[in-house]
Write a structure and sequence with these properties.
Blueprint (H helix, E strand, L loop, with lengths): L1 H5 L5 H4 L5 H4 L3 H9 L9 H25 L5 H14 L12 H18 L2 H17 L9 H28 L1 H7 L4 H4 L4 H22 L2 H18 L13 H28 L8 H20 L5 H6 L5 H5 L1 H24 L4 H23 L6 H21 L5
InterPro entries: AtHST-like, UbiA_prenyltransferase, UbiA_sf
Keywords: Chloroplast, Membrane, Plastid, Transferase, Transit peptide, Transmembrane, Transmembrane helix
Subcellular location: Plastid, Chloroplast membrane
Length: about 400
């Protein structure tokens, strides 16, 4: 390597001589350069002069490392090792593959889950799950009925119903994209987070999963509950310009559709699923079941009417003739509140007639408290503020959840 390094200079003898002053002089570099390189003549082009100068500077720096080794400094191998370390510790000029960014992936997953959460309309999901669990408890006759068989039957019903619930609310969003851009711009399809293709894929997948699970379970009450919900949910939402479809355009049909699903199918079909399929008992329509069906009929009508109150602007533009569009927000609002107060009054009488003291006290106090909370909460609603009306609508759903906590205690 030494001969290769030194052989690149034109005059080796004058540049390197053992013990020569060129090596020991502090100004050895200048001496070596003057002895081995003559200044270019003026006739040389400037570009060539610049190239020769840069070339000699490179050779000069290489010679310095070798000279330091001769004087007792670090050897060439040590110098090379030192500079390799420095080069690797600095910033690389070569392009490197992007690092694994876990924070970015977590953010992406979080955003995806949030979009699906909004797409599934969680207040309906919670309502469906609570209603099925509550009605299933009505089939319990003794403490030994709370067994793994009970939990398996409830889980089958809840999962299949939730799949169908996502189909119904997803189809409604696919049919109402333009309306939701005005009424509910935060929904994934209306905001553009989901494409129409994504929405169709989700809706189709969950409907197939629901029917598949209902068929695998082998419970006819469960399967018919899913099938009727599918038919009514499709007829309610789908917009294919067929006269007998898109029931939400007509206030009475829309209310009857929600009433049939929330008040009748959920109560009767899922009770029969537990009674006949899980416990293998004969069909019996008990007093608590009749009360639950009647009370939820009132509640379902209220939900059907109230859900259109915050959405009056978009419904009016797109020709949806809801009761809120026809009668006005404030009037429909107080009709809903009055219907619920009547329902709570009936529940108080049913509770008072119960032969069980604990059931009489719990259901009586619970329904009286909810009636009072409803009245005072309704008095504080600002009809000029859409957020206030929407907040009260979600409060109605909380009362809906609370009722399903009381229904199993009616005896």
């Amino acid at each position: 390597m030494n001969s290769l390094l030194l052989g690149s200079f034109p005059n080796k003898a004058s540049l390197v001589t053992p013990g020569g002053s060129c090596w020991r002089s502090k100004n050895w570099t200048n001496n070596c350069l003057t002895s081995s390189y003559a200044p270019p003549t003026a006739s040389w082009p400037k570009r060539k002069i610049k190239k020769e100068y840069n070339f000699l500077r490179f050779k000069q720096s290489s010679l310095v490392f070798r000279c330091e080794g001769i004087e007792g400094g670090p050897t060439c191998q040590e110098c090379n090792r030192k500079h390799i370390v420095k080069a690797t510790s600095g910033q690389s000029f070569e392009s490197e593959p992007p690092a694994f960014d876990s924070k970015r992936i977590l953010t992406s997953v979080k955003n995806s889950l949030d979009a699906f959460y909004r797409f599934s309309r969680p207040h309906t999901v919670i309502g469906t799950a609570l209603s099925i669990v509550s009605v299933s408890l009505l089939a319990v006759q003794k403490s030994s009925d709370i067994s793994p068989l009970f939990f398996t039957g409830v889980l089958e019903a809840v999962v299949a119903a939730l799949f169908m619930n996502i189909y119904i609310v997803g189809l409604n969003q696919l049919s109402d994209i333009e309306i939701d851009k005005i009424n509910k711009p935060y929904l994934p399809l209306a905001s553009g987070e989901y494409s129409i293709g994504t929405g169709v894929t989700i809706v189709a997948s969950f409907s197939l999963l629901s029917f598949w699970l209902g068929w695998i379970v082998g419970s006819w009450p469960l399967f018919w509950a899913l099938f009727i919900s599918f038919v009514l949910g499709t007829a309610y939402s789908i917009d294919v310009r067929v006269p007998l479809l898109r029931w939400k355009r007509f206030a009475v049909l829309a209310a009857m559709c929600i009433l049939a699903v929330r008040a009748v199918i959920v109560q009767l079909a899922f009770f029969l699923h537990m009674q006949t399929h899980v416990y293998k008992r004969p069909v019996v329509f008990s007093r608590p079941l009749i009360f639950a069906t009647a009370f939820m009929s009132f509640f379902s009508v209220v939900i059907a009417l109230f859900k259109d109150i915050p959405d009056i602007e978009g419904d009016r533009i797109f020709g949806i003739q809801s009761f809120s569009v026809r009668l006005g927000q404030q009037r429909v609002f107080w009709i809903c509140v009055s219907l619920l107060e009547v329902a709570y009054g009936v529940a108080l009488m049913v509770g008072a007639a119960s032969p069980c003291l604990w059931s009489k006290i719990i259901t009586g106090v619970g329904h009286a408290a909810m009636a009072l909370i409803l009245w005072f909460r309704a008095k504080s609603v600002d009809f000029k503020n859409k957020a206030s009306i929407t907040s009260f609508y979600m409060f109605i759903w909380k009362l809906f959840y609370a009722e399903y906590l009381l229904i199993p205690l009616v005896r």
